[in-house]
Design brief:
By secondary structure, the protein is of the alpha/beta class. Helices cover about 25% and strands about 30% of the residues.
């Protein structure tokens, strides 16, 4: 039986009872353990027992002596399939990391892991592919550290699922997800000033900027290499990271001798080309990448140096970067914690939040989605580190985010998806920060598989490829040769940036008998031109024009609410103009639902609408709904009434003036008379700005933000 694929955040809570198995267990025999131990056997020297608690039946592996002693089920895995896996796990005492593993003819495949607890059930979610078809055996393993050597802990297992998908099914789900979370169905209606539909009007929708942050790392070589600059700026890259130029060993190689010249120049280069910058990094926990003089410091001297470093670099670039990797790779290394204590990382985020409250603060580490067998950085360990930092006094309001370096060898696509699902339970932004693939014959094809999977996941909010160019070669993966001609990896990036709607896309057509035109658009900034055979010039929305004008109104159809919404902002139709109507198509970062446009939501106050000047690649990391008091709601209602009255008065006046006839010689006087009061547009703008929560600061002609609810 074919099932729709499940992509949703994994619950962070530990539950009293497990959920039902996904996909009804898939190909697992007796997934809910309602048939005793049928289909299950021992693995290693464990003993198994069927138990029941409050009506819930499960299986237990006990009397264990080795980490791999557990329960087991044999199955058959196919090379051509992609498998999603899940199970609910509990342990008998305290907590312990538990892994799910398949033993195959070609080796052991780690599927996923969870830090299980006693007294409640945690969901382990994972996935796998295999190199060759053949029999396989599922079992569970408790990770035993050098500190904790307790192998006797009992493992409780319930609601197990193993569901195969064909490559076609998987790709179909990716495309469905992209249509759902990356695009919006826009419906435009062109009408005459009397409100009648305008048939056969030509609609041209041109993308001006993509809404999804996608980019490539750069380094100081770009500052002096024109060919590098031309290549980089010709691409639709809207975000970047500097490879080494902001790292501590670069900016302060000797104590007190700071040098930000390279970083400053790169920031200016990015600004010049309207490219957002991720700050990388404030601290790097790997002891191999420290300035030598740091090792001679200890105690308070070391802490003071770290505090000075953080405030120096974050203060210097405050307002110029969208995010910071504050503590880099602190799941794998602990250089600063070894010097300052176990809470050093949490303290760094406390300092960082105070140093720059506008930037998003990332953890950043590797192998969380790349290697299922790396027990140091499994999603559960990442989430535990995040909770520890958030729970540190003063950090509850810190703008935290998850950074996934993504340095791949052979990608496990189902594991990538399941890991991001698990991380999504933290409800913070997730970015891919250093994506590359190790050199090899499959490098380009692997890169394409990974990018398709990442872009289709609803919780990924940005991607940076780690391919800064050097004459000697890139870190692990280049996109071009030394003449800046595409390598196969560069061809993949070009193909997918176009396919993902990150290049200057164009949609066009004509309105139907009811004046409607529909298009499915990737989120981003667009310009819309509306022309008609009977009229020479396009509709425009903007500031008051000095030349003669005729006023028209544009209606938008809100398919979600099934009601017409009139754009009460003045829409002008100059006799000589090539301007276009700017719009912004986007969705709330906290939702993964189809977006249906409201243009604009004049009678709603749940969420302020941003002007174009406030939109940046980091805006997807922001935006919680605002709440209004009763007095504010009353004031808003009064403003809405004023706006509607004002618009009705203007429309009535326009209709009256249209009936008035005059000769050509009187045209100038007639045009002057036909203009609305000088402050009409200002009054409308002030009222709309108030309704949008923008304190009257909205400027006419700026983009509206069409957001999902």
């Amino acid at each position: 039986m074919a099932y729709p694929m499940i992509t949703r955040p994994v619950l962070r809570q530990c539950l009293a009872k497990p959920h039902k198995p996904q996909y009804r267990g898939g190909i697992i025999v007796n997934p809910e353990l309602n048939l005793g131990v049928k289909g299950w056997s021992t693995f290693g020297n464990a003993k198994i027992q069927h138990r029941e608690s409050e009506g819930n039946k499960f299986i237990v592996a006990h009397s264990r002596n080795q980490p791999h002693d557990s329960i087991s089920q044999k199955t058959y895995l196919q090379r051509s399939k992609l498998y999603t896996f899940s199970a609910w796990i509990q342990v008998s005492t305290s907590s312990a990391p538990v892994s799910a593993i398949f033993k195959t003819s070609s080796g052991f495949v780690h599927v996923g892991a969870i830090v299980a607890e006693s007294g409640c059930w945690s969901m382990l979610k994972g996935g796998l592919t295999v190199n060759a078809s053949g029999p396989a055996e599922l079992y569970f393993e408790v990770f035993v550290s050098a500190i904790s050597k307790n192998t006797s802990v009992e493992i409780f297992v319930d609601s197990i699922s193993l569901q195969p998908f064909t490559e076609k099914q998987w790709n179909s789900h990716q495309q469905q997800s992209i249509e759902k979370v990356r695009k919006t169905n826009v419906r435009i209606q062109a009408v005459t000033e009397q409100g009648n539909p305008l048939e056969n009007a030509t609609i041209i929708i041109q993308q001006k900027a993509p809404g999804f942050p996608f980019g490539v790392a750069i380094n100081k070589n770009i500052l002096t290499n024109t060919a590098y600059q031309n290549w980089f700026t010709s691409k639709p890259f809207k975000v970047t990271t500097f490879e080494d130029e902001m790292k501590w060993y670069t900016t302060e190689p000797s104590p007190g001798q700071e040098d930000y010249s390279a970083a400053d120049a790169l920031v200016q280069f990015a600004k010049q080309h309207q490219i957002a910058v991720r700050g990388h990094n404030v601290f790097w926990e790997d002891p191999h990448y420290q300035a030598g003089w740091l090792n001679s410091l200890s105690g308070q001297q070391f802490s003071d140096a770290a505090n000075k470093r953080l405030n120096s670099i974050m203060g210097r670039y405050k307002g110029q970067v969208i995010a910071w990797d504050v503590s880099n790779e602190n799941l794998h290394f602990n250089f600063f914690e070894s010097k300052m204590g176990a809470t050093a990382s949490a303290e760094f985020y406390n300092w960082a939040s105070k140093a720059d409250d506008t930037a998003t603060l990332f953890l950043n580490d590797y192998n969380t989605i790349e290697e299922s067998g790396d027990k140091d950085s499994i999603p559960a360990k990442y989430l535990q580190k995040l909770r520890d930092i958030q729970g540190f006094p003063g950090n509850s309001n810190a703008k935290m985010a998850i950074g996934l370096e993504s340095h791949f060898q052979t990608p496990n696509i189902p594991y990538i998806r399941s890991s991001i699902d698990t991380l999504a339970g933290a409800n913070v932004p997730i970015w891919i920060t250093e994506l590359d693939v190790v050199s090899g014959p499959n490098q380009a094809s692997y890169l394409e598989q990974i990018l398709r999977e990442l872009h289709s996941h609803p919780k990924i909010q940005g991607i940076v490829i780690w391919a800064a160019w050097k004459p000697s070669g890139c870190y692990r993966m280049c996109l071009t040769d030394n003449n800046f001609k595409n390598l196969p990896t560069g061809e993949v990036v070009d193909k997918l940036t176009s396919e993902f709607g990150l290049t200057s896309g164009l949609a066009s057509g004509t309105t139907n008998a009811n004046g409607f035109f529909e298009a499915s658009l990737f989120h981003g900034d667009y310009e819309v031109k509306i022309t008609h055979p009977l009229v020479d010039s396009p509709f425009v929305r903007g500031a008051k024009e000095k030349q003669k004008q005729r006023t028209r109104w544009v209606k938008w159809w809100d398919k979600f609410n099934h009601q017409k919404i009139i754009d009460l902002v003045k829409v002008e139709f100059p006799q000589a103009s090539s301007q276009a109507l700017p719009i912004k198509v986007s969705t709330s970062s906290s939702q993964a639902l189809p977006v249906h446009q409201q243009f604009p939501e004049l009678l709603k106050t749940q969420e302020p609408i941003q002007s174009l000047s406030n939109i940046s690649p980091s805006s997807s990391l922001k935006g919680k709904r605002s709440k209004s008091s009763s007095s504010k709601k009353k004031e808003n209602s009064d403003k809405s009434s004023q706006l509607l009255d004002l618009a009705q008065q203007f429309m009535a006046e326009a209709a009256r003036l249209q009936k008035k006839k005059g000769s050509d010689s009187d045209s100038d006087a007639s045009d002057a008379e036909s203009q609305p009061p000088a402050n009409w547009a200002d009054q409308v703008d002030q009222t709309i700005s108030h309704r949008r929560g923008m304190s009257g600061a909205h400027e006419r002609g700026k983009s509206l933000d069409i957001r999902g609810r």
